Records
---
Amino acid sequence: MKLSALRAALAATASVAAVGATLLTASPAGAATTLGASAAQSGRYFGAAVAAAKLSDSTYVSILDREFSMVTPENEMKMDATEPSQGQFNYTNADRIVNHALGAGMRMRGHTLAWYQQQPGWMQSMEGSALRQALINHITQVAGHYSGKIYAWDVVNEAFADGGSGGRRDSNLQRTGNDWIEVAFRTARAADPVAKLCYNDYNIEDWSAAKTQGVYRMVQDFKSRGVPIDCVGFQSHFGSGGPPSSFQTTLTNFAALGVDVQLTELDIAQASSSAYAATTRACVNVPRCTGITTWGIRDTDSWRSGENPLLFDGNGNKKAAYNGVLDALNAAPGTPTTTPTTPTTPTTTPTTTTSAPPPGTCSASVSLNAWNGGFVATVRVTAGSADLNAWTVTLTLPSGAAVTNSWNVQRSGDRWSNVSYNGHVAAGQYTEFGFQATGSGTPAVAGCG
Ligand code: G3I
């Protein structure tokens, strides 16, 4: 049962009022119990910004691996980190994060290829055509290095001015010419044809803000001229009141331009549960809002640590806001209800293969997004008439196909199994994992159990 339905049922039954408070704080039977699994029920991810230096902190890593399905490097992919000397690239710390995330079945958001801040010293003093060439080379090298491993790149970060102008922010990059942003996107697409390419900024959540309107006009212009932009990241660094009341309207209006929208750096001063829940609802009410990332894990990891703005306290304990988010994710439109239902047959498309659903176990179906020389496969695992607590899908890959990366899954040969956060699938419900491969053809499901 969805939480909203549970609340409605309780409201209609006066006799249960005395126990209502207890029931309302409990997860409905069968509802997912981690952020990643709850988000996955409606096809979304839940991510965190991660610092390479903290990957040796066992508390930090255990929360990361248990709760999250997407990772953004907090600093390690920025220009000063990846190209400290011109033409000399250093991927050591970023690779540590990528390897951990992909190894644990999580996906990656890349952050960021072009920004007026965190430029290496050699770039800060550059202008004009030399800087334009250096930017193009930087994007080509970094996006190329990670090609096939990144779900979405923040190609350009924070290029619009604060205040009422609605125009671009002055910077050395902007002074190379107003077309620098579209050049950055075209360069990124050439270097990594698969990653979604995002524009990312802060204070663009309020629909009436001039900055929001400026970014909206740029995305509208890019879409009309075929500049390759796939998504807009709303950083969502909020004060204690949470998001502006128009946030969902903003997300809806941007999505209507034909881009995905994502909450990319969420944190909220004092982290009230209601503010986090309202933020989560604004996303899950918009079909093209594909995921939410918090900017850190524990309060002590935050760039705003004095404001305790995250979902876990300094000891790694879940805060009240954690439950606010979890409940909102579990109540998302499109999230399957959690009461036992008759198992549904997965929808098939011409590029889909389906295994027979053995009673009480699971079925699996594959849908493909293919291009010349490669494909991304999304595999949906649907529970039969009983809950699954773990699952393994056996896949036969097309001859010559080679897997380059995968997410929400661990693989051993032709056997693909759940990771920590998506093993439980309630009867009749589904979860999804994916992988990218070179080659052509459609993977065939040989079994699910
Ligand atoms: O690692 C060095 C350390 O060796 C040195 O002793 C110390 C002295 O200042 O600096 C350390 O580096 C700092 C780094 O964070 C790691 O802690 C940098 O000075 C500091 O500038 C950097 O701040 C980061 C900031 O971006 C600027 O790049 C924050 O961690 C990071 O959370 C923040 O993230 C940004 C997003 O990228 C874009 N949106 C806003 C968001 C928050 O500001």
Note: The longest helix spans residues 128-145.
---
Amino acid sequence: MIIHEDKINQIFSTAKPDKEEVDSILAKSIRSLERLSLKEVATLLKVSDPELNQKIFDTALKIKELIYGNRIVFFAPLYISNYCNNNCLYCAFRQGNSISRKALNKSEILNETEALLKQGHKRVLLVAGESYHSQHGLDYILKAIDTIYNAKAGSHSIKRINVNIAPLEVAEFRKLKEKDIGTYQIFQETYHRATYKQVHLSGTKSNYDYRLEAIDRAFEAGFDDVGLGVLYGLADWKFETMALIEHIEHLESKFGIGPHTISVPRIEQATGAPYTENIPHKVSDSDFKKLVAVLRLAVPYTGIILSTRESPLIRRELLKLGISQISAGSRTNPGGYGKTDESIGEQFSLGDHRSLDEVVYDLLEMNFLPSFCTACYRLGRTGLDFMEYARPGDIRKKCEPNGLITFREYLNDFATLKTKESGEKKIQEWISDYDDPKVKNRINKYFRCIDAGQRDIFI
Ligand code: SAM
Ligand code: SF4
């Protein structure tokens, strides 16, 4: 058994969020930058005193700055098919829902990818419904990965494909791994077994354990880069957050490594999806901020992903609490970027409709560095290697320069004039902050190469 509800409830009910205890957890977490225990997480989740909560937020920001600096990594979801055999009551793609269905063909996938490349994206998250049909099953997805990697817009191509698809068998995971994908992502949706049963009416996904054990099978197949997540709103958010940590404890003890990323979607409005009309455990904005901050403290080296489900306002606030990856300019209907057919059903409504360029500009205003870097994955710095490597000192020597180099490329090739001017100014400010003249000179040398037309430089 991976998730023990009784144990979680018992730890939660006995945790005492008094000031001394909370202070000592926060001091430990910033000192050691190590994962917190279930009891420590429960203690932080139970804090209600506004002053103590502010301390949690402040410490989360410090940890984020130590590990990630001011970089925010961009990605775009690429929905290739909305055919689905499952019946998840929160999703518009569910089998029982009558929406216009589509599995993009090769030229439509190329069209989508080119549209994303022209915006400046380098990293996509391939998303699909779960179909048992031979025309939109695993083989279809594997071919789609090849198509996306082979797409070109001028000298630009997609450098990393992460994948969010239904759980596979070990042998199938091996086939997926052979395609050189980045992260395999899967959200348990809810760790609460009874709720899980109520919302997943039919299809393979109605099997809680099969889904929960998917990451174990992915590791057995050789993956070392996986992403977990909870669909917040189905069950109590504090329980879900504790259970997520218990899932991570399980992975660490069995495989010696936890997830590379955690996603924190909140349920959004979706056509024909009853659980989006009346969300049973709706998470307020303030609780949402709290859970992101607690996750930042609990698993300092795990990236936290936020999508365009959320509004610009809440996205801005969460960036300061622990989010390290965001999407921008997203569409959740297959064909949405290349405008294949506007009548094709989307998965859920978006909260942020801004273009990538507008989001980039906004990040600059907040002094964040928009990064399009994919170096770690391409240099094999994944899994345990990534954890070893992602120590604060090394990040400043490699990740920040890589972020700056990829951002310079973005500014030269894709930015509007307004973003370019703001970006150039920021770049000069950031470079002048470097104490080590060698690193400074190196970055400036790479900038000259980019200005001379060289592309795809990373260290
Ligand atoms: N079909 C596969 C599955 O369910 O695992 C993978 C893709 S599914 C489209 C990706 C994720 O979208 C789901 O895991 C779920 O968390 C999220 N999702 C579904 N409906 C949503 C909604 N109404 N609001 C926000 N996220 C939603
Ligand atoms: Fe299908 Fe995934 Fe939507 Fe469930 S969440 S209905 S499995 S696409």
Note: The pocket of iron/sulfur cluster (ligand 2) is lined by residues 84, 86, 88, 91, 93-94, 129-130, 205 (CB under 6 Å).
---
Amino acid sequence: MKIHVPTLISRKRDGEHLAPDEIRALVDGYVAGEVPDYQMSAFAMAVYFKGMNARETAALTRSMLESGTTFLHGPQHPPVVDKHSTGGIGDKVSLVLAPLVASTGNWVPMVSGRGLGITGGTLDKLEAIPNFRVALNLEEAAVQLERIGVVMMGQTDRLCPADRKLYALRDVTGTVASIPLITASIMSKKLAESLDQLVLDVKFGSGAFMRTEKEAQRLADAMIAVGREMDVEVKALLTPMDEPLGRAVGNALEVIEAVDCLDGAGSADLRHLVLDLAEVISPESRAELSKRLDDGRARAKFDELVTAQGGNPADLRRLAEIHEAPQVREYHAADTGTVSKVDAGLVGQAAMQLGAGRTRATDTVDHAVGFDRLVKVGERVHQGQPLCRVHVRDRFDYDIAEALLDKAIRIDP
Ligand code: URA
């Protein structure tokens, strides 16, 4: 279809709805290099302000999905399922959930992203495991999926190239926070896994993309509508992200906490959320899933995954030594009382300042730094008691983290 791009941009700017084949032609033209970045950024800004209806969002998702190749599962495959989280602080759920669900016989071809801004990314965490390869190609991924039922990898050049290009553009043009653009971006990548079922963890709160439950519901509704349009069962849980998930924030520190959870131990809020989400996409009951965390079956599947992707499960017990930060300091309570706030957004900012996250997609992350043994809301503490450990490169970084923790943690008498 021949389109006149300035007219499409103006029509969207004026709030018109575009036809699916117009959106398709625009996306195809962008991937082919015929539509330049300046026109696509103007279009993205028009969408940012005027939105898209469900039909347009589905058309954008489909165009981005079909800009590349997808997973092709053979005819006799078990249910193919996955989870996507919109991202939070200390969110290491994927590391536990993928092997847990795969241990029940479902296939989990999890394509994840890197951290950007204050939220961490699954790929960065996995790379804290020495030699773990996240850059698998689709052929390698298919072989591994067939063999062990789980893959955790990054987006390849062939998966949704339109999203890759558009996301990089949105990142530098102030057009990331748009529900239809986020929906198409996330759903195109997830649907490229050729799923039967997807569960979404849509987070809201100070440490999430969406600040309010209402906004999170709008995003969830948009993603569910796209799933319906494309014949994939999508369910969403809306979960608060006002305090960090678990007690660790930082790449290696979060892997250590995830391994604890896979060993049936660790933080209760992490275990609960893993089970809430796993229950939706697994044939097994919550009680059975819980048992698999306690009896080593989920952990055994994670070890298989680590081995299959180049790592050594024996290193999982040594991660604290492998990624030992130059300084590990305690942060102490100024008062006695009950913890009423551990602000996830501020803890996330602090972790980023220490080097655990990235401000630009090309930055590298420091696997060693961050926080662990973090206090939880509702706990009683005494003046002088440690509220967390801070893993830092030097004293100056500690001072930055301390100032943010002073604001993040509130203790009521
Ligand atoms: N994550 C994505 O993959 N895309 C978005 O647009 C936002 C978050």
Note: The first strand starts at residue 81 and ends at 85.
---
Amino acid sequence: MLVNQQQYRTIWPNENAELSLSGVSIIDQTKLPHRFEIVTIQSLEQMIDAINNMQVRGAPLIGAAAAYGVALAMQQDASDLYLNHAVMQLIHSRPTAVNLKWAAQRMLKKLLDLPVADRLSAAWREAAAICDEDAELNQAIGGHGLMLIKALAAKKPSRLNIMTHCNAGWLATVDFGTALAPIYAAHDAGIALHVWVGETRPRNQGASLTAWELSQHGVPHTVISDNAGGHLMQQGDVDMVIVGADRVTSTGDVCNKIGTYLKALAAFDQNIPFYAAVPSPTIDWTMTNGLKDIEIEQRSPRELSWINGMLANGELAEVNILPPNTHVANPAFDVTPARLVTGVITELGVYAPDQLKNIPFNNGLG
Ligand code: MRU
């Protein structure tokens, strides 16, 4: 997607002077929207840190990062022992998004059967394939979501208002995004639309990442506090909600960034269609009850008590907003039960949540 009119993906391998691969480039998302910085990751350990401290984040992107993490590990040591170690470390770096486990296990399956000498080059190839596939799946989601938006826009004389949560745009994927892919497709097709962007405390990925990428693409949008979502729906200012997901059960329960459930409840109460945009690697066929089965990541209290921003002099800074010794809880995701979800937009089409299990997906999980 476009950054200052230049095409970027969120992750790519570096070629050195001998045309062999060395290191992986990522966009450091902890610096956005104030700085656009590209960082080189050289080792498995650095990739695990980048996932853990959210320089790379978003379910599909951390899957791609895990794949490259395995390739970097093969550069260090291509033995069975180290391969298994790398895969386990990556899977545990963030527990909720199933894409990470999916990608790491796909790498393991591909590499374990190969002679040790062939593993490094095969790992680079497989990680690149995972990235290309992610971009393709998201582009297809964009096409199916576009049809939904077109149908709603045809019934409305003024511009369509779409609400989203967190960042499920291209920054959360390798390219195109999941929830934002239909929005970009509709905007590019000339449909008049406007996006309500929930800021998404505590890390504010809506305010800092979604607002930034929508403005890079010229899509009209307005940032709102998370608490404003229900009110805007009651006022008739929201025509549809589209969110991404970190894990969806085979029964259609949608686990996404904390606060998604509240938006889904308000949308249900106001009879506003609520969609989750989900590539097949985000569906966990082993799980049938999202509330019981999905591990919710508990993140550091520091994410609530300190806020990142830019000072008037242009320096980046962190400021503390809580009284000393205040207890803080920071669950990072919640589960929206299938009954509140109008449809799941996948690369194969749009499905009612209870129809997912009948779709011929084959993502290798479960
Ligand atoms: O904690 P994050 O920033 O990795 O969470 C991201 C989200 O919850 C996104 O909505 C999700 O990954 C959607 S997938 C494009």
Note: The chain is about 35% helix and 20% strand.
